[in-house]
Amino acid sequence: MKAADTDKELVEQALEGRVEAFNLLVWRWQRQLYNFLLRLIGNRSVAEDICQEAFLRSYLNLKKLRERERFASWLFRIAVNLYRSERRRPAPLAADPAELCDSSDVRDEAHPMSREMQLAIRTLVSRLKPELREVVLLRFFHGFQFDEMAGILDCPVGTLKSRLYKAVDELRAGLESQK
Amino acid sequence: MNCPDFEKLIAERVADELTAEQRAEMDAHEQSCPGCRRSVAEWQKMQTLLLASWPAEEPRLSFFLPNPRRQGRWLETARTWFGLASMAVVTACLLLLAVLRPAVSYDHGQLSINFSKSHGEEGAISAQAVTQAQVQAWVQQALEQTTAAGASETQPTSGASPIPSNTEQARRVTQLGVQVEMLKENQSALWQQVEQHGVYLQSAWRGPSDQIDSQRQKSSDRP
After folding, report:
1. Which residues in chain B touch residue A121, judged by CB atoms under 8 angstroms apart?
2. Mean pLDDT by 10 residues, chain B (223 residues)
3. Among A22, A30, B173, B220, which is least packed, fewest CB within 10 Å?
4. Nearest chain A Cα distance for residue B33, angstroms
């Protein structure tokens, strides 16, 4: 077992009872999944809880994963389903982008942007409908392809594309209105 | 390729997910259409802005699962040692049973266990229950021995021994009577003890002669 192993190899090793292999999968995907949930929900604690639950469920149901090379899509799908279940609760999740723009955000040199601009764009993203926000995050932030997104969000590719275009139009309109 | 077809593939073009043929067609259209070129630029700018606005952060928690292997290894070791210890105890018990060969009997509501050495060993211990008939036989035997002894004393011996007088004979008869009474009392007392304590186990070292006798008896019992 090594870090260079593919997801499929690690899944097969984990199925043989090697927890280290699964931990390597967790280590590989935890940052992506956590940040996806954080941007989707806007709440660190809830994002951490769902992330933990998603990893646990994926470990417990690893045998059900047929396409082992698609572990990441499957993991994100579990997380999205957990998020949707959480959203259906009587007290729905409320994203608060301002809260997320705290001192823990460090602007790196590759993407210099003012704090106000960051907050404006985050607010625009958080105001998107959840189904549009999901598509924007998976596509622009995490680089999933449309067929992978279709698996994660349980939605046809055509619908996803139309949602993405709609989301981009709304974001563009929002940015122009702030100028 | 026209503008609506180009629009449909902008997302793939920004993400560079086109086939070589699609890419060539889009390049050709982009060069000839400023509107579609601007659309692609806006998509790319949007992606850059989004990524810059919300850089990824490290999770505060580690989501690593506990490694059960260490726990399993410890449990495995414990199980192994427990299994070995259990086997050793069972083996020791079996060896003890084989060496001591306990005889278990139950009579008059009392359970008795007696340990004896192996039959092959010289001078083995035997245990048997005492019956009333056996006690009576012992007393009868003692009476006969006493009577015989008394009779031999009363018979005249050849030689110079004097003939006992009537008084002497009467004294000996009286002594015999006292001894008979004492034996009878002993018989009743012994039987009371047997009744009181249930099975009375008599243990005695059996000599080689006894073993030979018992072997003869066993061989005679065979058909």
Report:
1. 49-50, 53-54
2. 86 85 90 90 89 86 65 73 92 87 74 62 50 76 75 55 66 83 80 64 45 50 46
3. B220
4. 20
